[in-house]
Amino acid sequence: MARKPAPRIMTHEDAEEILSPVGMPAPRLAPLRDPGKLLAREEFAVEIRRAWAESQESFLLIGRYLLAAKSRLQHGEFMAMVASDLPFSHQTANKLMSVARFVEAGEVPPDTLPSASETCYQITTLTVEERARALKEGVIHPTMRRQDILLFKRRIRAPLPEMEPELSRLTMERDRLLKRLREIDQAIAALDESKKAEAS
C-alpha cells in the first residue's frame, strides 16, 4: 500500500503570503482598550470604529486562510477540517472564500467594502455590469447593509417597462389556454360518462 505523503510544513514565507498578498493590507487586529477605562464619547467611538473595521479584516483573513488551506491540504482534508475543526459550515466557508477571492482580484476598491461578511458576499453575486452600476450609483459603500444590495438587485433585475406588454400578452394567453384545457377536460369527462351509461 502506498504511504501517505508527509504533510507540507508551512514556512514563514507561506504565512506572509497568506497574511499580506499583493495589494492587500496586513490585518491590524490589535487588542481593544479596556472598556472600563473609557470615559469620553469620542474614546468609545474610536474603539468601536476600530473594532468595526477590524471585523472586516478578520473575515477577509479567515477567507484567505481557507483559500490557502484548500489549495495546500491533501485531497479530502480541507472538507474534513471544515466539517470537524471549524466553528462554521461549508456554506459559510465558501462565502468567506468567495469574498477573499473577490477582494484579492481587485473587483471593487477595498475602501468601499462594508464590514459585514454576508453583505460583502452579496456584492460578489453581482455581475461585472451590475457591480459597475452599483458603484456608480453609490450603492456599494462601507456603511451599506445587506438589504441595500438585495433591494438593488431586485430593482435592476425587475422586468423592463418595454417588456410589460409582452408579459401581459403572454399571461392572458396562458390564462386562455388554461381555461380551454379545463373545458376539454370537462368534455372528455362528459363523453366518458355517456360511454359508461351506454355500456350498462
Task: Please summarize what this structure is.
By secondary structure, this protein is mainly alpha-helical. Helix content is 64%, strand content 0%.
Describe this structure in words.
With 200 residues, the protein is mainly α. Helices cover 64% and strands 0% of the residues. The chain contains eight helices and no strands. The protein has helices spanning 12-19, 41-72, 77-85, 90-104, 117-124, 128-136, 146-157, 164-199. Helix 2 crosses helix 4 and helix 5 (117-124) packs parallel to helix 7. The radius of gyration is 28 Å and the shape is elongated. It starts with 11 loop residues before the first helix and ends with a helix. Residues 21-29 have low confidence and may be disordered.
